[in-house]
Design brief:
By secondary structure, the protein is α/β, with parallel strands linked by helices. About 50% of the residues lie in helices and about 20% in strands. It starts with a strand and ends with a strand. It binds guanosine-5'-triphosphate (GTP). InterPro entries: CheY-like_superfamily, Diguanylate_Cyclase, GGDEF_dom, Nucleotide_cyclase, Rev_trsase/Diguanyl_cyclase, Sig_transdc_resp-reg_receiver.
């Protein structure tokens, strides 16, 4: 385990470090509460061993502050064991109230320290597995299983924040609604499985466009999402008016440029998309209105022959 040892006595810290290292742990020493907080913020630890009596900020206050910092991150919880000379009942109660997990006396025999470290190692392993599982779950909750793009839920959550920011800052907000042309016919003729592969290819292409736009610094924060079915969106949180037109054109050309055969897509003979591109500059009113306008423009692009975009 990687342990943060907080103790104002260098002599005691040296002895404790040697004991912990002999059990196979890695130890970092903080000489006071403030240093411990700084080290906690810049590194991650499996366990904190916290002295109680320290000049300035004592162990209880240091622990309370560490727990407050952890409060910003769901799932974060570093076990904290208080190490003290006086293992009174009052100390135990205060230690747990402050956010500590256990309590050990400085006079405890080596076997007790070793046993507690064993228990904490098990907890550390469990925490790491939980953090990994949680990361995976978050990922699954935010991404579309087929294409890997942000799903509708994640897109809506991100848009809520980005829209508010744009409205308050009086900045533009743009949105592209993108729909694969004659996709029902694609499924009907090439199979649903082939349809899935086609959606993946289109999604990769849109992600590539968004990435390029970000890299070119045309509109930072641009991202693509699967809106639902064969419909996608590209969200452009802050870009000069007109940028959405350039991106819409790039999208139409890039998808057609994939040259994915689609014999039943009218005169095109390949997979194409239609795009409705809207820019609210500056952003105002409701984000729903932006979607409504984008949908209308998309409908116009379809009605005007597909494989094209319409923009406001
Ligand atoms: N393979 C596959 N097909 C899907 C998926 N989601 C939606 N679809 C299909 O997408 C098709 C959409 O058809 P329509 O809404 O009629 O639109 P369209 O045929 O693309 O016609 P236009 O939009 O007018 O160009 C339907 O046949 C859906 O079954 C999916 O995840 N995989």
């Amino acid at each position: 385990m990687k342990i943060l040892l907080v103790d104002d006595s260098r002599a005691i810290a040296m002895v404790t470090t040697a004991r912990l290292e002999s059990f196979g742990h890695e130890v970092r020493h903080a000489i006071n509460g403030q240093t411990a907080i700084e080290m906690f913020q810049s590194d991650s630890f499996d366990l904190i061993l916290m002295d109680i009596e320290m000049p300035g900020m004592n162990g209880f206050e240091t622990t309370t502050r560490i727990r407050a910092l952890e409060g910003h991150e769901p799932w974060a919880w570093t076990p904290i064991i208080f190490v003290t000379a006086t293992d009174s009942d009052t100390n135990l109660v205060t230690a747990i109230e402050a956010g500590g997990d256990d309590f050990i006396s400085k006079s405890s025999p080596e076997s007790v320290l070793q046993a507690k470290m064993k228990a904490m190692t098990r907890i550390a392993a469990l925490r790491s597995r939980l953090a990994q599982a949680n990361g995976k779950l978050q990922d699954q909750a935010n991404h579309d299983g087929l294409t890997g793009l942000y799903n509708r839920r994640a897109m809506d959550l991100r848009i809520d924040t980005l829209w508010e920011t744009a409205v308050h800052a009086g900045r533009p907000f743009s949105l592209l609604m993108i729909d694969v042309d004659n996709f029902k016919k694609y499924n009907d003729h090439y199979s649903h499985q082939a349809g899935d592969e086609c959606l993946k290819a289109v999604a990769d292409c849109l992600e590539g466009v968004a990435r390029q736009v970000n890299e070119d610094k045309m509109a930072p924060g641009v991202f693509a999402a699967r809106y639902g079915g064969e419909e996608f969106a590209i969200v452009i949180p802050d870009a000069a008016p007109g940028v959405h037109v350039g991106i819409a054109m790039t999208v139409v050309e890039a998808v057609a440029g994939l040259n994915l055969p689609h014999e039943w897509n009218e005169q095109w003979g390949k997979v194409t998309v239609s795009v409705g591109a809207v820019c609210m500059a500056p952003a105002s009113g409701w984000v729903k209105e932006t979607f409504r306008i984008a949908d209308d423009l998309l409908y116009q692009a379809k009605a005007a022959g597909r494989n094209r975009f319409e923009a406001n």
